[in-house]
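User: Before I run my own analysis I want an independent prediction to cross-check against. Here's the chain; please return only the structure tokens and, at the end, one sentence I can use as a sanity check.
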Amino acid sequence: MSNDVSLVVFDCDGTLVDSQHSVVAAMTEAWRAHGLSEPEPGEVRRVIGLPLVTGVASLLPEGAAVAPERVAESYRRAFFELRRRQEVVEPLFPGAHAALDAIEAAGRLLGIATGKSRRGLIATLEGHGLAGRFVTLNTADDAKGKPAPDMVLRAMAEVGAGPEATLVVGDTVFDMEMARNAGVRCVGVGWGYHPADELAAAGADRVVHSFTELPAAIADILPGPPA
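Assistant: Structure tokens:
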């Protein structure tokens, strides 16, 4: 591994963009398609970031007659329809662009590890002018999902970064666990879908509450690349 590569791997939903409204809408439509009572929005937010089938399985009522894989496919169709109708709501969290600029200016590479599909991730990045900002993209289509370490390990291998020079930024305990399973450091963000105390308990080295705090937090935790 190269000693001059420093990598910061971001989660997407709940960290870069607030996608909860569209996720809840698509999940609700999927439940309706199978005659199921609508899931509670708060419970849906809790599983954002997990592999889709895993999240669906945890939300389905005990003894449900429909397989999680079928409901997950209905969710994909519902989300695709939302995007086709240009009704996907996933605004960028305030300060994201400036924080990414500052992290890059410090000589660090940017990556993403997300439970989104690659198609969905590309659409999100393009919609916010972020296409090309991230040198490595790992999605649910590319590797085993969180909290497995696979996406982070792939990102490190792709750019040549060692675990001592890699850090994960995310909003859920699944992100913190993924980072710990990959042997890297992590920062939790308090504006997403899991409470700050849960992020800390899951192993976050730091929890920040605005994007303006993030570059300094990363600099404190992760050694910078050589000048």
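Sanity check: Residues 20-84 form a domain with the DNA polymerase; domain 1 fold (CATH 1.10.150).
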